[in-house]
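Weekly puzzle thread! Below is a chain. First person to post its structure in token form gets bragging rights.
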Amino acid sequence: MTITIGVDAHKTLHVAHAVDDRGQRLGEWRGPNSVEGWRDLATWATELGHDRQWGIEGTWSYGRGLAQDLVARGETVYDINPRWTAVQRRTARRPGKTDNKSTRRRLWARSNKPTRQRPSKRHHSHLVSRVTV
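Winning reply:
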């Protein structure tokens, strides 16, 4: 069973949701965008299972530190193209918008694309194999 973890990365806070292959929700994590927070998130994810893939929107922005940390730990990390969630974000800009909706969109984006897809400029996500400093 592959566990897909979607992360909504913000300047000071990350929110993560995990689902299994069937789309069943396995849990939610919320914590600081810091080295300690990334360590706590990795520990939480390890408790969910061994075969994991991550979808993070903004691996070159607020999610960069987390992506670097996860790649260094040997995790499979995908950068989720903001275009996938842009329309949904625009329609969600109203009272009551939550990070839960954003992370679910990232989960959907990652889980609805073939994991064996070879990255190219035309694809909407790409495997983050090395995020440089």
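Puzzle host: Confirmed. Bonus trivia for everyone else. Residues 10 and 62 are 6 Å apart (CA to CA).
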